[in-house]
Write a structure and sequence with these properties.
This protein is of the alpha/beta class and about 325 residues long. It is built from 15 helices and five strands.
Amino acid sequence: MSFKDIYGHDKQIAILQTTMAKRRVPHAYLFYGMKGIGKRTTAVVFAKAMNCLEGEKAFDACDSCSSCRKIVHRNHPDVTIVAAEGQFIRIGEIRYLQNQMKFKPFEGGKRIFIIVDADKMNITAANALLKTLEEPSPSNILILVTSRPYQLPLTILSRCQHLRFNPLQRETIASFLQDRLSMDAESARVLASSSGGSIGKALEMSRDAFLTLRNTILSKISENRMEDPLNVLSFAGDFGKDRREIIDRINILRTCYRDALVYKETAKMERLINQDCVETIKSIADRLSGRDILNNIKTVGWALDAIDRNANKALTLEAMMFRIAW
């Protein structure tokens, strides 16, 4: 993969290539933005471009020289990627990185050190890294990748050049899914609309039978069976116990009610996320008042916040469904 294979980040790539062309690459970068939009991928391609044996004039990776191939296979001596083993990045991993930084480039380019999910560094690891940032080596480039920059100490943030990665456009994600997965246009559009701007999320949903799950949830909330408490409890139980799966299902519920409100207020089908389920969306919109739909959206948002704060999952789901039912 080279820069031209990265979707939706032309501005960020142009900035990186300009610094390469002017030989003004900073000693430390902060790549930040939501999860699954290509920050890590861009960091690895940048490492390839900085060390490519054939692409120096193009300021890109050729993807075929020995250096590019080594980076792809994670065995290049001048490119190190550090990621959390468990919940945190601990001081031992940072000390390993610091020990590697003592050496000059083995193959003549730059030594690139990428810390994935840098916000997971514990306080001792972050303090150790700060010493490295305070005494940079001209042959080393450090890239911190994070979706939560606010979790990093200000002393670290202030010593990095920031590069923000924005959520991707729906059209960009749909094109990616069609090009890379040979997905049909309608499925790609629905997944792209439901991904929140994240290619990673869209890929995850494509593997998790997202459309089948969404159709099941749509069918249940369109049926007028929520007056029976047993049905309410059963539906809440269908959300499962895994936190990630629960959040995915709640987000599906939110897009369904969002579409119902859009249809009720505008009747414009092109504004719907679930355009392939128009009749079901219509039935929800016809059965509920605008105020009821808006209250349901607020309830779903409340449940997402509660799950994010590690509230009891089962009780939160039951409370959410009873609020929606009544």
